[in-house]
Every structure is written in structure tokens, then in C-alpha cells.
Write a structure and sequence with these properties.
Blueprint lengths: L1 E2 L3 E4 L4 H4 L15 E5 L1 E5 L4 E12 L2 E12 L13 E14 L2 E11 L4 E12 L2 E11 L4 E5 L14 E3 L19
Antiparallel strand pairs: 1-4, 2-3, 3-5, 4-5, 5-6, 6-7, 7-8, 8-9, 9-10, 10-11, 10-12
């Protein structure tokens, strides 16, 4: 199955008849529809994957992943005789990958979203923006279960623009310097 130009392919809602796929939600509390749209979409059912190319946008709940290309891996054939819908296990995005969630934006060259573990791993000149804080490194792991993030250099010195080190710029709340000094209560 091929879709042209700028076709929207909804892997859960519309695909109930075409794919019948289910996905664990990005946010806890149940399943949410995962939608993918791109300039070109190809279903390769024999190898249980869908390939999206050109201005790819995947959305589920409050999260959006954009990239040049994405590969969606699922568990069993769409034409399965059991009638059970296949489950999406992984999304692999490449080329100008940007993951956005409320208050957070991460960018990099490549990302893998493991749906079952609810973990996104990004590599290649990764930049994480959380509010006014910016951190850069070679590899980022976002745990959607606890909203945690871990950033490292990616393993090799010189593999990131930061020279193989993790760098960060953090906002510091402004202090009121006009306030009178408080008297010391210590005795002489």
C-alpha cells in the first residue's frame, strides 16, 4: 500500500480496518491514537513495518515527533487470520528528529521510541530544552514512565558538537538584591 502526496495515515483509528494496530499510550492512563502523516507512506507487511518519508509527523497525546523519515515496526501481519490486531513495538525516526512535549523539546539526528518500555533514545548532536534550561550531548534517554532524562556524550570523545562532553545552560531565579540584610542572631 502506498500513499501520495501528504497522506494522513492513522495507525489506530483509521487503521482499525487496515492495520488494526494498538499502541501503549505515551502518557499513563490508557491507549491513545497514534497518527502518522508524511509525503509518502509504504506498508511492508511481510517484514511487519511501515516506512514514512518526507515531512514525517507522528502524534500521540501531547507528544509529537517530526523527522525526515520514520520506520514503524509492528508485531504480526496485518492480514493475520487470528483477527487479533498487531501491536506497534517501535518507532525509529531519522533525519532532523524533533520530539516535543509540553514544556520540553529535544532534537537530534536519530531516535528510537520503544513503545513497551516507554523509553525514547536519541543520538547525534542532541539538544534538550526544558523551559529555559538547555543541555547538549551525544545521546539522550527520556523515560516517559517517570519523566526522567539522562544525557551523556554518546560514548566517544568528539562525537558531539560539545567535544564529547555534556554541556548545559540553566536558568537561575533572580534574587532581590534591594532587600535589607537580616541581622545576625548569633551571640558574640
Amino acid at each position: 500500500i502506498m500513499a501520495h502526496p501528504r497522506t494522513t495515515f492513522i495507525l489506530l483509528a483509521c487503521a482499525a480496518t487496515l492495520l488494526g494496530a494498538r499502541v501503549s499510550a505515551f502518557q499513563s492512563g490508557g491507549n491513545e491514537t497514534l497518527s502518522v502523516d508524511a509525503d509518502h507512506l509504504e506498508i511492508q507487511d511481510k517484514v511487519q513495518r511501515a516506512l514514512a518519508q518526507g515531512n514525517v509527523r507522528a502524534r500521540q497525546g501531547a507528544m509529537t515527533v517530526t523527522s525526515d523519515r520514520a520506520e514503524v515496526l509492528y508485531s504480526s501481519s496485518l492480514m493475520s487470520s487470528s483477527g487479533a490486531p498487531p501491536e506497534i513495538s517501535q518507532i525509529r525516526a531519522s533525519g532532523n528528529v524533533v520530539v516535543t512535549r509540553p514544556g520540553e523539546k529535544a532534537s537530534g539526528s536519530y531516535a528510537i521510541y520503544d513503545i513497551n518500555k516507554r523509553i525514547i533514545t536519541m543520538i547525534g548532536n542532541v539538544v534538550l530544552n526544558r523551559g529555559a534550561n538547555v543541555v547538549r550531548g551525544g545521546r539522550l534517554v527520556i523515560n516517559l514512565n517517570n519523566n526522567g532524562a539522562s544525557l551523556d556524550s554518546g560514548g566517544k570523545v568528539g562525537t558531539s558538537k560539545s567535544g564529547g562532553r555534556v554541556t548545559g545552560v540553566f536558568s537561575v531565579p533572580k534574587r532581590n538584591t534591594d532587600a535589607p540584610a537580616t541581622p545576625s542572631t548569633a551571640s558574640p
